[in-house]
Amino acid sequence: MAPSKKKHATKQACVTPEGFAVLPLQFSPDSAARHSLYVKEHKVRAEKTSCRPLDRTLFVLNIPPYCSQSVTQDLFSKFGVVASVELRDVPGSSQESGPKLPKIFRPAAKQGFKVGYVVFESSSSITAAKSHPHDESLVVSTEQKPVKTGVQKWIQQYTKSIIHPDKLQQTVNSFMQDYDKRQEKEAERQKEEAEKQQEDEEGWVKVTRGHKGAKARPHSEAANQRTLQREARKKRRKELMNFYTWQHKNTQKEHIAELRRKFEEDKQRIALMRAQRKFKPY
To answer: Whole-prediction pTM value?
Structure first.
C-alpha cells in the first residue's frame, strides 16, 4: 500500500519594509494575538525647522485604531521621555494651513490604522526603540492604565461629545478674539506694505488731510509729483480747448460781418439799378 501524501502548510516569513524595525504589540497581557508596528528614524530634509526634529523623531506605521494619541505616548515612553505624538491618516507635512481649530470644531477622526510621528526628548530613545527585542511585546491595556473597547468605549466617546454651553461659549469667544487679533495684524501688515510702496527713494513721506472723518493718508513726493503732472496736462488740454473755442467764435464773427457787408453792397447796387430804370419823358 502506497503511503499517503500529506500536504504540509508552509509558514510564510514576515516581510518587513526596507529600513524599518518591527515592534511587537498586544492588546492585553493575556492576549494571544499579536500586532506588529514598523518604526524607523524620520529623515526628511524639508522638515529641518519643523516640529519633527530629524535626530529625535520616530516614524511609526500600522498603528491600530485602539491606540489613541495618549496610548501611543504611553507605549513609547518605555524608550524615553516623549515630547509629542502626532497621528495622521497618511504620511505628510506637519504644516497645517489656516488657524488651529479647537477640538470642539474639529471633524471626527477617521477610524482605522494610522501613521505616527513620535518625538523624543533624547536621540538615544530612537536607538532603543529600533533595537527592542522581538520576543517582548508592548502591552496596550494594563491594570494601571486600562483601555476601553466595545460598548464601554462608545459610551465614553458619547459622554465626551456632550459639551457644556458655558464651556462652548468660552471656546467661541476665545477663538473670535484670536481671529480679531489676526485680522488686525494682517491689516497692519498691509498698511506697512502700502506705505513702503508709496515712499520714494529718499524716504520722504508727506501726510495730507482727507475728507472729514477720514484718517490721514501718507503721500510720497513722487506721488505728489505725478499728481502735479496730471494737473498740468489737464490745464494744457483745457487751454487748448479754450483756444479752439475762441478761434471758432472769431471765425463766426468774421463770417457774419462779411455777410453783412455783402448785404449792404447788394442793397446799394439794387438801389442804383432802380434809379437808372426810372422813366423820364422829357
So the answer is: 0.51
- Written as nine digits, the cell of 224 is 505728489
> DSSP letter at 280?
-
Residues β-bridged to residue 115: 88
Whole-angstrom distance, CA of residue 170 vs CA of residue 162: 15
The string of pLDDT tens digits covering residues 87-143 is 888 887 765 555 666 666 666 667 788 889 999 988 888 888 888 888 888 888 888
Q: What is the DSSP string of 210-245?
A: -STTPPPEEEEHHHHHHHHHHHHHHHHHHHHHHHHH
- CA separation (Å) from 102 to 18, 52, 171, 176, 183? 38, 22, 8, 12, 19
Say if strands 35-41 and 21-26 run parallel, antiparallel, or are unpaired.
antiparallel
- The Cα 86–Cα 68 span in angstroms is 10
